[in-house]
Amino acid sequence: MASTVIGAGITIEGEITTDEDVTVQGTLRGKLVAKDAVTVEHGGVVEADVTGGPVSVAGSITGNISSSDRVDLQNGAKVVGNVRATRITIADGAQFKGNVDMDV
Amino acid sequence: MADTSVIGRASFVRGRVTGDGDLEIAGRVEGEIAVSGEVVVEATGLVAANIEGRRIIVRGAVKGDLVASELVSLEATARVVGDLRAPRIAIAQGGLVRGQVATSGGGAARPRAAQATAARAPARETARREEPRREEARREEPRRVVPAPAPSKAAPAKASPAKVESKANGPAPRGATIAGSRVGPPPPVVPVLKKGTKAVQKKR
Which ipTM was obtained for this model? Predict the structure, then answer.
């Protein structure tokens, strides 16, 4: 449980820097820098550039995503922005607009 | 419970945290916090922000004003520099506060008016500021296990509770000594204020 959770109904405007997991169920505007997993759950809204380890999206992200590991866009996800990661999955039903940059 | 937000101990948030639900802070927050539910600043929490909420419980360090519509509770490990405003305020033994304490039913409107009057009469401000702290000390006295009857701002009164404190609160020596000396006439925060006021007077 040593992680950061932005609950539904909570809005953070600003910058989050963390060494641990982040779960977004609410709204985040600004910037998100994590060293570990970032999860945007269904209903979560991120209007920020996201840097992290594995990024899993079921909610909405407007901004660039940069991951040292993988990015999973799940069913229901809505992503507008460029994605940079070593691996990426886009599930059926995910909306995505942007460029993909994978280290080939 | 599902709406509880957590700022983990390795997290740093700079900006505004607003909305509905509870908030638990074990990491660092700089900016502003205004939520509708309960705000808990854990022992590892470090907050440089004004906090608004229904209930505010502090076990860590806060620099900023705490305004709650229901309750502000400072537990033994709390360190707060800022004003406290709530209908109910609790300060546990060992909890450190520097700032104005006001238990009032109103929200932000009334305390702000009070601040304005304090600003208009700066000469009386120090006296006003001392008042709540003395009240605190008095309030805490019955809770202490003080053998001496009615310590009335005399030197022995200062000495005896300090001894009791140091025996009772072994693991928190810093808080204990400061909390113990708060019973005596010069509370720990007042000398700091007095130095400041003296400096101001010298400048004038």
Answer: 0.88
